Amino acid sequence: MSISVGQSAPNFSLYDSEKNKVSLQDQKGKNVVLLFFPQAFTGVCTTELCSVRDSISQYNTTNAQVFGISVDSIFTLAKFKESEQLNFPLLSDFNKEVSASYDSLIEDFVFDMKGVSKRSAFVIDKEGVIRYAEILDKVTDIPDFAAIQQTLEKLQ
Questions:
Q1: Is 45 a catalytic residue?
Q2: CA 18, CA 36: separation in Å to the nearest integer?
Q3: Could you count the other beta carbons within 10 Å of the beta carbon of residue 152?
Q4: What gap in Å lies between CA 55 and CA 11, rounded to an integer?
Q5: What would the pLDDT profile of 27-68 be if each residue is shown by its tens digit?
Q6: Of 16, 26, 27, 106, which sits most exposed with the smallest number of CB within 10 A?
Q7: Domain contains 23
Q8: How far apart, in whole angstroms, are the C-alpha atoms of residue 122 and residue 129?
Q9: Share of residues in the chain with pLDDT > 70 (%)
């Protein structure tokens, strides 16, 4: 499935690292930032998510709820969140369905691993429409956070 700006965001329900079920449809009325990342406890993923942690006030001032999503288990994500003191929810897409629906699944990863989330970023407006989409081909690249912030500011 191809994801593009202007389309309705695919709905989903996933468990967070605190074992709560989170649905996109329950976020209506807020802007949402989805950050898909390959794996917890890896260098680039840690750098990416810690940069969001350190600038969470910018997201809060634009009425944006940030979610990190990976195929890691809720237990791994809980340890990762605690270890890095992340201040936003991490969602487990263990079954890889949401990553696939957002065109954000790497079929063949390193060390013969099959199916991890592509590093990608989406901004979804208060009505559930995708307003920003960035799917990165290289797992070592980081989303354009300035462009994400600009998109969020325009949605105010």
A1: yes
A2: 18
A3: 21
A4: 26
A5: 999 999 999 999 999 889 999 999 999 999 999 999 999 999
A6: 26
A7: no
A8: 10
A9: 95
Domain presence at residue 11: no
CA pair distance 90, 124, nearest whole angstrom: 17
- Please name the amino acid found at residue 98: V
- Residue 7, in any domain of the structure: no
For residue 55, the enclosing domain spans 29-154
In sequence order, the 6+-apart residues with CB closer than 8 A to the CB of 117 are 36, 37, 38, 69, 70, 71, 93, 96, 99, 104, 105, 106
In angstroms, rounded to a whole number, what is the distance separating the alpha carbons of residues 39 and 146? Answer: 23
Q: What is the CATH number of the domain that holds 139?
A: 3.40.30.10
Residue of 22, 34, 45, 91 marked catalytic: 45
